[in-house]
Amino acid sequence: MTGIIGYGAYVPYHRLGASTNGWGQKTEKAVANYDEDSLTMAVAAGRDCLSNVDRSQVDALFFASTTHPYAEKQVSPLIAAALDLRRDVLTFDLANSLRSGTLALRAALDMVKSGSIKQALVVAADIRLGKPRSVFETSFGEGAAALLVGSSKPLATIEDSYSISDDVLDLWRSPKDGFVRSWEDRFAIERGYARVVREAVAGILQKHKLTPKDFQSLVLYAPDARRHAEMVRTLGFDPKTQVPDAMFNVMGNTGTAFAPMLLISALEKAKAGDRMLLVNYGNGADALIVRVTDAIGSFKPKLGVAGHIQSKKIVEQYNTYLQWRGLLEYEPPMTRPADERPAATALLREEAKVFRLHGSKCLHCGNVQYPKDRVCIRCGAKDKFEDYKLSDRQASITSYSMEYVHPTLDPPMVVTILNFEGGGRLIAEMTDRDISKVKVGMPVEMTFRKLNSVESINNYYWKCAPPRDQAGERRS
Hints:
Blueprint: E1 3-10, E2 14-16, E3 29-31, H1 38-50, E4 60-64, H2 76-82, E5 90-94, H3 100-114, E6 120-126, H4 135-139, E7 143-150, E8 156-165, E9 171-172, E10 181-182, H5 185-208, E11 217-220, H6 225-235, H7 258-269, E12 275-281, E13 284-292, H8 304-310, E14 313-314, H9 318-324, H10 344-349, H11 351-354, E15 358-362, E16 368-369, E17 385-389, E18 395-403, E19 413-420, E20 425-430, E21 443-454, E22 457-465
Parallel strand pairs: 2-14, 4-5, 4-6, 11-12
Antiparallel strand pairs: 1-7, 1-8, 2-3, 6-7, 8-13, 9-10, 12-13, 15-16, 15-17, 18-19, 18-21, 19-20, 21-22
Helix pairs in contact: 1-2, 5-6
């Protein structure tokens, strides 16, 4: 029986909220830090999903987004490397549609059912921009989702799906556009979203002779809270008992990741036997009947949607967010030379070191060191090592410094020396931190981030951050 065998999510630590000076909204929206993009958020969601999963069993990786870091370069291989998946994993990038997440899920299910692969990881992430002070800026949020598909004890199965393909010019963005564009609002909703979603839902209900009363949950994509409430009423579902919180007021519409994140949030609260109707939209619509199995309680992500929603920090100044997105010019200190372009040759040669964060463990004395070397610094043994992954290991700060003159959008730059549990030492920049709480002995975890972008080349590496735990607060 094929279905969803694992799930995970990522909601950025930072939010714009009522206390953000200059924001002017009562609601909150999740906003990625300046060193995050759709790729790094996809890695974070994948790690949340795979924290207790044997990654060697994953045969394929699907990455869905409308905000790929590159217009011409596949992104999923780098995500696979950062997740430390096998070298022979099959990778796909899906783009251009807000339905990419559910389209990728359907493709993964079909491949597993066919027997061509055994497990597939579907990750979706987006950082969509609306013009400052626009309705889109208020409603858009940022985040990522991960769904692991397989045939071994699924948590939920997809009983059937029904799709509509529809070419309507409601929302669009060309390669040169920084912001999402829209046709007149009433046309976009009535002739686009509302018409197509009604058709997809009616189609799948009629196909199986079902009514809204046959479902415990409606997991519904909508552009904003108002349209979500209107569509729930139109479809005939009870908003109090059948519709989980769509999190517009605490997270926002996360684009390609939105419908998968809503599904994950519903699965976190679901009971065995529950039947859900998952509906996604974007130049057409997907309607999927999801049935929760008895195995639903056997899997827990590291944090999931709920844990990430609770763990947050409100950005103090709206201008800070504008600088993070490059919408407000930032003048760095003129004390350092410009960043150099990353070397493609070095990145290829050092993939295990840079992207997988592999050190080595001496087979003679057990010493762990990073980066790899041919000689053990403890016992002197030569060429007697095995790869040792550091990215999933907890660490603590043994020393740190704060540099206020380094050009960064989040001053000061905090540079730490880390000691890992089980051995290994690393110099790493610290992100998502409160500088008043940084101290020697502080526990941290590794997080994949973007260091910079030079000549259209994004330079990714690992940073450290305070852990986000189930209690919902950063530990200090």
